[in-house]
Design brief:
- The protein is of the alpha+beta class.
- The strands form 4 sheets. Strands 2-3-7-6-5-8 form a 6-stranded antiparallel β-barrel.
- The protein folds into 2 domains: 3-91, Elongation Factor Tu (Ef-tu), domain 3 (Beta Barrel); 96-233, Threonyl-trna Synthetase, Chain A, domain 2 (Threonyl-tRNA Synthetase, Chain A, domain 2, 2-Layer Sandwich), CATH 3.30.980.10.
- The chain is elongated, with a radius of gyration of 19 Å.
- The chain has helices at residues 5-8, 93-112, 139-151, 163-168; strands at residues 3-4, 14-23, 26-29, 31-32, 46-50, 55-63, 70-74, 86-91, 117-121, 126-131, 156-162, 186-192, 196-199, 214-223, 226-233.
- Its main location: cytoplasm.
């Protein structure tokens, strides 16, 4: 299994790695800073720099649904290096950092809407959460509440709780459809100051001040009890 360096430090931009396997259109490494698509967050893109100077473009990163293997997807037609090749894996940092800011902003929004989350998606320019909510919230009031927490520059901390602790505190899980993976002994958590605390495997900024001001976009009705709230950077 690929060692997930980004879980402990979202600010790692590159790492040394060795190719442990390949399959059609994909490279598998012993360790990686590339986040694989999951939890509503897109996978990382970037480059692999081989010792002979060859540069391979990584278009996306995903997890194999059956094995959990990290697949670094190359551009179509790219020759795959042999197993054992050593390289430097470098993420597209500007893109990743924008996704980190967005993801953390959604955690704050989640704390300001008193309803379960029924879906979500993180993007570079726009992100959204779907809430099990009968009525739309006041957009201006919600944006003001989120921006107040951003301006307060509160710390964002990575930690973990045991499977047993999570089972004893089911209210920590805000999402209705996606449950955090268990069975490994512990579950990764994200704490946003005194604002939000929940299981999450995504990448985040170190403090809310890094997010920058946001605005609330469309609030869409997606069902009798489903309101989609879109968020943008100001």
């Amino acid at each position: 299994m690929t060692i997930e360096l980004f879980r402990a430090d979202s600010y790692l931009k590159e790492c040394a790695a060795t190719i442990t396997a390949t399959q059609e259109g994909a490279i598998i490494l012993d360790q990686s800073v590339f986040y694989p698509t999951g939890g509503g967050q897109p996978g990382d893109s970037g480059t692999f720099e081989l010792e002979d100077g060859t540069v391979i473009t990584i278009a996306n990163t995903v997890k194999d649904r059956e094995t959990g293997t990290h697949l670094h997807l190359v551009e179509e037609g790219t020759p795959l290096p042999p197993v054992g090749t050593k390289l430097k894996a470098i993420i597209n940092w500007e893109r990743r950092y924008q996704l980190m800011r967005m993801h953390t902003a959604l955690h704050i929004m989640c704390s300001k809407v008193d309803a379960a989350v029924s879906g979500g998606s993180i993007g570079l320019e726009k992100s959204r959460l779907d809430f099990d909510l009968p009525e739309a919230p006041d957009k201006e009031a919600l944006a003001a509440a989120i921006n107040e927490e951003i301006a307060a520059n509160k710390p964002v901390e990575i930690a973990a709780i045991s499977d047993e602790e999570l089972e004893a505190n089911p209210d920590l899980i805000r999402t209705m459809s996606v449950k955090p993976p268990t069975g490994q002994g512990s579950v990764r958590t994200i704490r946003v100051g005194d604002v939000d605390y929940q299981p999450c495997g995504g990448t985040h900024v170190k403090s809310t001040g890094e997010i920058g001001p946001i605005r609330i976009g469309k609030v869409e009705k997606k069902g009798k009890l489903n309101r989609r709230i879109n968020i943008h950077f100001s």
